[in-house]
Amino acid sequence: MKRLVYLIIILITFSVSAQELSSEDYIQKFHKIAIDEMYSYGIPASITLAQGILESGNGNSQLSKKSKNHFGIKCHKGWE
Prior knowledge:
The chain is mostly helical.
């Protein structure tokens, strides 16, 4: 019985975490950050969001999930 409860919890957790974001979800989640960055750097928030959506597959790529890298920027040792 205990194993069944654990299995159900794992399956529920996996199914919730496996849901992918749509473009609309991505915009809703990150629009405030994009607007703040627009005021700091002058890049329109719409461009930042569009590039993030394109590069990260709406924030669903492994790189964006694991490393919070939504733009596919590659870094090597010694980069800051």
